[in-house]
Amino acid sequence: MRSEILIIGGGLTGLALADRLEQAGRDWRLVEARARLGGRIHTVSHAQARFDLGPSWFWPGQDRMAALADRLGIAVFEQYAQGIQLLEDRAGQVHPARGFASMAGSLRLEGGMTSLIDGLASLVPDRRIETAAPVRQIGQGTALLADGRALEADHIVVTLPPRVAAELSYAQPLDTDVLAAMRAIPTWMGGQAKCVAIYAEPFWRMKGLSGDASSQRGPLVEIHDATSMNGVAALFGFVGVPPQARADHADQLQPAILDQLGRLFGEEALSPSAFHLMDWATEPHSTTALDLEPLRAHPDYGPLSELSKLADQRLHFSGTELAPEMGGYLEGALAAAEAMAHRLT
């Protein structure tokens, strides 16, 4: 099976690129290893609402995100931040009106960020997209799938995180300096774990609390109101426990998180209607062992000069970590797709 352009990876960059190629009338095909589209964008559903277990926000001034939401007809609303925020100290004592966890001014999407994925997928022909189709080897104009099929293309675009892309097999092995440069780029939020607790009502709001909290004790280091636009109440948090410790104490993590939510917000928090935990460090299509080391700051992302020579072989790499601007953010994923579409068209 042959196409002009083969996209490997069905996350935001891959789908946004597919959309641009479709608009330009190009012949393209997209394959995704997972059984779903979205990559690091992932939501869970409950009571006619969806909650993000991947990225949750974008910000004013990120014009590509705003334009895409408008084009797809997705409502945008502000992160709830009214009321008192909390700080939990190392001893587990809770202090009101302290801490620096508020995300006031951040923007969310009705239906969660998966609404972007669903919307983009609806704009392109289903026949051009295949899920549950992991690539095992990339050759000169050929991608070999795990089931043994070979897909041929004039150009191959890999939209996986650079560290994940470096672990693929290449019929013509990549130079050691190229692989080293790819492996040196941290996967944004790759070693992170995130949870959401869903409730019958936003009881913290009734107590004058914003839902924002930061903790020096954990296991959650940062907590926010995740209530959906249609009013289904929820709190979400980022787990501060390192990946290996999470794996070693997996059965203890949920009880410890609920106990912490109880300390912060009251006994109502101990019994959610539903609880979901996503450990991205265990996702082989998103992270590698190199991502188990926590990030201390936002990396300095951008195009990688070592990859430019591969374009002569019609092999290209794209994604938010390689974006010309706003690297690591959803806006960066769209910027990367825009830049790659310009290169190919």
First CA to last CA: what distance? 22 Å
Radius of gyration, CA atoms, in whole angstroms: 21 Å
Bin the strand percentage: 25-35%
Tell me, what is the CATH class of the largest domain? Alpha Beta
Give a short account of the largest sheet.
Answer: 8 strands, mixed
Number of helices: 9
Which residue ranges are poorly predicted, with pLDDT under 50 across at least 5 consecutive positions?
A: none
| Average pLDDT rating | 96
Residues in helices, as a percent range? 10-25%
Coarse structural class:
alpha/beta
Quote the CATH topology of the largest domain. Polyamine Oxidase, Chain A, domain 2
CATH architecture of the largest domain, please? Alpha-Beta Complex
Quick overview of this protein structure:
Residues 104-343 form the Amine oxidase domain. This protein is of the alpha/beta class. The chain folds into 2 domains: 1-41 and 113-187 and 299-345, FAD/NAD(P)-binding domain (3-Layer(bba) Sandwich), CATH 3.50.50; 43-112 and 191-285, Alpha-Beta Complex (Polyamine Oxidase, Chain A, domain 2), CATH 3.90.660.
